[in-house]
């Protein structure tokens, strides 16, 4: 597998071996071509999965796992796209199984798969804004109400004395001032009258 990829793509593909799995790092322009070569020439006819990895501040990685069932060989295909304009060609024309994975990666990371037949939200409710698996996505609910899995004294909002309040990871320090926390008992205007 490695020799065939090196012969076809030369220095345009960076290869590594780990635990019997070949990893091929390519530029976005070679994403589709290497996947097609893997299917048609290397025997990687089984599409296992595809996902994104946020690498702030400038890039998102997209990773696909392809498998050759006859030769029992794995290929991990990776590329990096800019966070500001994450676009890749779809693999749905090569692998029907890429459809669901590309929709999920579009929804969760914002990667647009050009040519996808139905690139619409898959898991999140209608009207949801943002891409929740990006590291810059603010988990506002962690600021607005106590986290039920509190481990530190005072995090649960009752019981032992509290420490200085800190914001959850990824929440900007001035965010709480712009978006004040509701009262501990909820919103008194929406409470039922007794």
Structural summary, described in words:
The chain is of the alpha/beta class and 194 residues long. The protein has helices at 2-9, 31-40, 98-109, 140-144, 175-178; strands at 13-18, 21-26, 46-55, 59-68, 73-82, 87-89, 112-114. The strands form two sheets. Strands 1-2-5-4-3 form a five-stranded mixed β-sheet. Strands 6-7 form a two-stranded parallel ribbon.
Strand neighbour order, sheet with most strands: 1-2-5-4-3
CATH class type of the largest domain: Alpha Beta
Strand composition percent:
15-25%
Number of helices: 5
Q: Give the tally of structural domains.
A: 2
Write down the secondary-structure element order. Answer: HEEHEEEEHEHH
Provide the structure class: alpha/beta
Low-confidence stretches: 183-194
**What form results from the Cα inertia axes?**
elongated
List keywords for this structure.
194 residues, alpha/beta, Beta Polymerase, domain 2, 7 strands, disordered C terminus
What's the arrangement of secondary structure elements?
Elements: H1 2-9, E1 13-18, E2 21-26, H2 31-40, E3 46-55, E4 59-68, E5 73-82, E6 87-89, H3 98-109, E7 112-114, H4 140-144, H5 175-178
Parallel strand pairs: 2-5, 6-7
Antiparallel strand pairs: 1-2, 3-4, 4-5
């Amino acid at each position: 597998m490695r020799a065939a990829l090196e012969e076809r793509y030369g220095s345009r593909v960076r290869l590594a071996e780990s635990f019997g799995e070949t990893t091929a790092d390519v530029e976005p322009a070679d994403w589709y071509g290497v996947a097609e070569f893997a299917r048609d020439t290397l025997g990687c006819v089984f599409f296992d999965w595809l996902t994104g990895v946020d690498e702030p501040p400038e890039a998102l990685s997209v990773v696909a796992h392809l498998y050759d069932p006859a030769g029992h060989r794995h290929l991990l295909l990776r590329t990096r796209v800019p966070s500001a304009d994450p676009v890749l060609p779809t693999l749905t024309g090569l692998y029907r199984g890429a459809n669901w994975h590309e929709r999920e990666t579009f929804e969760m990371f914002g990667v647009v798969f050009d040519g996808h037949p139905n690139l619409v939200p898959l898991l999140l409710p209608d009207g949801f804004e943002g891409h929740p698996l990006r590291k810059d996505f603010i988990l506002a609910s962690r600021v607005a109400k106590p986290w039920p899995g509190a481990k530190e004294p005072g995090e649960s909002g009752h019981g032992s004395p509290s420490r200085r309040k800190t914001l959850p990871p990824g929440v900007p320090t001035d965010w709480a001032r712009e978006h004040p926390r509701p009262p501990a008992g909820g919103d008194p205007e929406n409470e039922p009258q007794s």
